[in-house]
């Protein structure tokens, strides 16, 4: 499977690169025809730094952001993003700080924050940072969580997003569906690859893939 891997480069930054493996993959919510490999962006210092720089551009003149909630292994990008926003954001937090936090997931698959972290979310302006947005269901779960703790979602960023916005909030992404013109995400019952009898290559999630 790995020998099919190709690499694409962000249009605005040649140092931000994404790996793509074509095939038939099953996620928690859908079937997709590409495994979007973000391993380097999530784990390598320079790749994470450059990706954060690209994402920060959308918020250069934004209103206040108090916390970045990191999902799907994006903590290193989140730290660089917080630095860029604090150093270069116009009026960002009035020169104040930005918290970089990750929720836990309980046995009911709900996102929660412990008591000592809740004060970083309560009545705060929140930027949600994700690895990949395909259907918006993870954003739904995140909004439910923020409602519990009275957090106000003011922005959504992702390494890759197949959607342009969620409600009235734009999804700011380093790579979009336009960079993957043949990208398809469909419910398992509507998957064209399944209907042709093509075997699923792997189960994928934010940690990577497991071949079948």
Give an overview of the whole structure.
With 212 residues, this protein is an alpha/beta fold. It has six helices and 14 strands. Strands 1, 2, 3, 12, 13 and 14 form a six-stranded mixed beta sheet that branches. Helix 2 packs across helix 3 (75-88). The mean pLDDT is 90.
**Would you report the number of β strands?**
14
Strand content range:
35-45%
> What form results from the Cα inertia axes?
globular
Low-confidence stretches: none
Nearest-integer average pLDDT? 90
Count of runs of 4 or more consecutive helical residues: 6
The profile of the biggest β sheet is: 6 strands, mixed
Task: Please state the CA-atom Rg, rounded to the nearest Å.
Answer: 17 Å
Write the H/E string, N to C: EEEHHEHEEEHEHEEEEHEE
Structural class category: alpha/beta
Indicate the percent of residues in helices.
Answer: 10-25%
Note the gap between the termini.
11 Å
């Amino acid at each position: 499977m790995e020998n099919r891997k190709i690499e694409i480069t962000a249009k605005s930054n040649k140092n931000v690169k994404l790996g793509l493996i074509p095939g038939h993959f099953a996620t928690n919510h859908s079937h997709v025809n590409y495994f979007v490999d973000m391993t380097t962006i999530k784990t390598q210092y320079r790749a994470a730094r450059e990706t954060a720089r690209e994402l920060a551009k959308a918020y250069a003149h934004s209103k206040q952001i108090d916390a970045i909630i990191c999902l799907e292994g994006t903590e290193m990008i989140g730290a660089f993003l917080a630095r860029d926003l604090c150093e270069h954001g116009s009026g960002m937090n009035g020169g104040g700080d930005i918290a970089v936090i990750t929720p836990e997931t309980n046995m009911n698959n709900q996102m929660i924050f412990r008591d000592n972290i809740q004060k970083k979310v309560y009545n705060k302006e929140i930027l949600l940072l994700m690895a990949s947005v395909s259907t918006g269901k993870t954003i739904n779960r995140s909004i439910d969580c923020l409602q519990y703790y009275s957090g106000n979602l003011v922005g959504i960023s992702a390494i890759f997003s197949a959607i342009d916005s969620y409600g009235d909030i734009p999804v700011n992404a380093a790579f979009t569906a336009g960079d993957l013109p043949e990208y398809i995400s469909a419910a398992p019952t509507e998957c064209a690859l399944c209907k042709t009898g093509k075997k699923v290559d792997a189960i994928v999630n934010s940690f990577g893939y497991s071949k079948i």
